[in-house]
Specification:
Blueprint: E1 8-14, H1 38-50, E2 55-59, H2 73-77, H3 91-96, E3 102-108, H4 114-128, E4 132-137, H5 142-149, H6 157-177, E5 184-187, E6 192-194, E7 204-205, E8 210-211, E9 226-229, H7 234-243, E10 246-248, H8 254-270, E11 279-283, H9 292-303, H10 308-319, H11 354-376, H12 385-396, E12 453-454, E13 496-497, E14 531-536
Parallel strand pairs: 1-2, 2-3, 3-4, 4-9, 9-10, 10-11
Antiparallel strand pairs: 1-14, 5-6, 7-8, 11-14, 12-13
Biased composition (Basic residues): 359-382, 427-452
Domain Luciferase-like: 25-335
Organism: Actinomadura rugatobispora
Length: 538
């Protein structure tokens, strides 16, 4: 019977005070505040090497976390991945005090150049004796793009992976093809150190990079460092299948992890690689002590210092959603997107002012609202009626910058722009004289449905019959009849909630008096400065 590969232990950290354990820097025994000192990293490396760890995986980010609240204030105040130093520079010092520990360092292909990064990693491969690894990322923070690339937004997701693939092609040519084996002679008597005939220019000219010359560094122990990757999107899985030797996957659902692992290995086989050569690691947070009771007590003590808002700062940066605008007790199911946001196809044209683009989005939202209002009054058809239009308007608010997402009507007291004057007060908006007139209402006002709700079947108006060719009556629309029959929920509510929209406001939502509400809250366990990651070679 074939013995399974042993588990490989990897410690996961970052060159900052707080990586994924927001708030633990306040613990009396925490030492991460010394991340700027070389002794801190050397002591950490010694402990891991003596404990049998195989790898120190160091994450990195080159931008501030400024999505939460629209600025980096909370990230700075709570030390959420800010400030952060360059992890490459401490690797050689850690290698000097260890014998077996490997180092996987994160570097982005979006902001580096292959010619220079190949030189840095070859140098570290020499200094560590072949113990360097490269965690390949493409970056996602808009703040990094603004400061490095002078772009308002990050490069599109799939294009970043296209850049990364060409980046790797250039690096492969430099590491594997530029210097032949035996090119370095070190012939003291003949006075020849390197055989010029065995060093070749790579002559690369591609869409993103042009590198005509040869590699600057002689072949290192590995030539190509260990390649790590952590993306599980379709483009990320394809990239991992073509290049990665160690893939980081994280999901609390084992069946999802299995699907991702099987998919990457299947793709690797399609590229001519042996699937079993692609290894996978996932994260497990471990709290250790002499006894179970002592370990549980330590875990409770650590949880006292967790910072929920700091966790939301990190979640906002990773998801691109400003979670400061939402209530902590709101059920997470309400944020599920049922369809693509209404404004997803409206991209800001180059040179168009941000205010004009916001006005364009507002105009579309107002048109959708008017159509929804007409459907609620009986004008027009649609299986979802006006509720669907309201839901689409709420989803659109995510794409509106700043106050543009409030969709307030001009002139209301709650509108901060009411009473403003000047050319910028109504940028991109039509004047009051040019706004379309609202439909004239005849007869009594029909009962309004609560926002985000639909009437249950027993409360809803009967479905309209087949259309007739007879002339339409000009009389007022007939309001829906009020029913006194019990509701399906067994209560006396006016409306029963349906599946909530993906984007809603903070206002209280009407619900059945006899129903209950379950609030889903995320749970996080934080175990100190080092998160122990186990790698299974299956």
């Amino acid at each position: 019977m074939t013995q399974p590969d042993p588990l490989i232990l990897s410690a996961f950290t970052m060159s900052t005070v707080s990586h994924g354990n927001a708030g633990l820097w306040r613990h009396p025994d925490d030492r991460t505040a010394g991340y700027t000192e070389l002794a801190y990293w050397q002591d950490l490396a010694r402990r891991l090497d003596a404990g049998g760890f195989d790898l120190l995986f160091i994450a990195d980010a080159v931008g501030q976390l400024d999505v939460y609240g629209g600025s980096a204030r909370e990230a700075l105040a709570r030390a959420v991945q800010t400030p952060v130093t360059d992890p490459l520079l401490a690797v050689s010092a850690m290698a000097a005090v260890t014998e077996h520990l490997g180092f996987g360092v994160t570097v982005s292909t979006t902001y580096e150049y292959p010619y220079l990064l190949a030189r840095k990693l070859s140098t570290l491969d020499h200094l560590t004796g072949g113990r360097i690894g490269w965690n390949i990322v493409t970056s996602l923070l808009d703040s990094a793009a603004r400061n490095i690339l002078a772009r308002d937004r990050q490069i599109a997701h799939d294009e970043r992976y296209a850049i990364a693939q060409e980046f790797l092609e250039v690096a492969y040519k430099l590491w594997e093809g530029s210097w032949e084996d035996g090119a370095v002679l070190r012939d003291r008597e003949g006075g020849i150190f390197t055989d010029p005939d065995k060093v070749h220019a790579i002559g690369h000219s591609g869409r993103y990079f042009s590198v005509p010359g040869a590699h600057l560094v002689e072949p290192s122990p590995q030539r190509t460092p260990l390649l790590l990757q952590a993306g599980t999107s379709p483009a990320g899985r394809e990239f991992a299948a073509r290049n990665a030797e160690l893939v980081f996957v994280a999901d609390p659902r084992p069946e999802v992890l299995r699907r991702n692992v099987d998919d990457i290995r299947s793709r690797a086989a399609g590229h001519g690689r042996r699937p079993e050569h692609v290894k996978f690691i996932t994260s497990v947070t471990v709290v250790v002590d002499d006894t179970d009771r002592a370990a549980e007590a330590k875990a409770r003590d650590l949880r006292r210092f967790r910072d929920t808002r700091g966790g939301l700062v990190l979640l906002s940066a990773l998801s691109g959603v400003d979670w400061s605008e939402h209530d902590l007790d709101r059920p997470i199911e309400e944020f599920r997107h049922r369809r693509q946001p209404l404004g997803a196809g409206l991209r800001r044209r180059p040179g168009r002012p941000e205010a004009a683009h916001a006005a364009r989005l507002r105009g579309r939202a107002q048109r959708v609202r008017r159509r929804g209002a007409r459907r609620r009054r009986g004008h027009g058809r649609g299986r979802a009626g006006g509720v669907r239009g309201q839901d689409r308007c709420r989803r659109l608010q995510l794409r509106l910058p700043g106050d543009a997402g409030q969709l307030r009507r001009p002139g209301r007291a709650s509108d901060p722009r009411a009473g403003e004057a000047g050319p910028g007060a109504r940028a991109g908006r039509r004047g009051a004289a040019h706004r379309p007139r609202r439909a004239v209402r005849h007869g009594p006002r029909p009962a309004r449905r609560p926002s985000g709700h639909r009437l249950p079947p027993s409360c809803a108006a009967p479905a309209p019959g087949p259309r007739s060719n007879a002339p339409r009556s000009r009389g007022p629309p007939r309001p829906p009849a009020r029913r006194s029959t019990p509701r399906p929920c067994g209560s006396t509510c006016a409306a029963a909630p349906t599946r909530p929209s993906s984007i809603t406001t903070r206002s209280a939502r009407p619900r059945c008096r006899g129903s209950t509400r379950t609030s889903t809250r995320s749970r996080s366990s934080m175990a100190g400065t080092v998160q122990h990651t186990f790698k299974h070679r299956s």
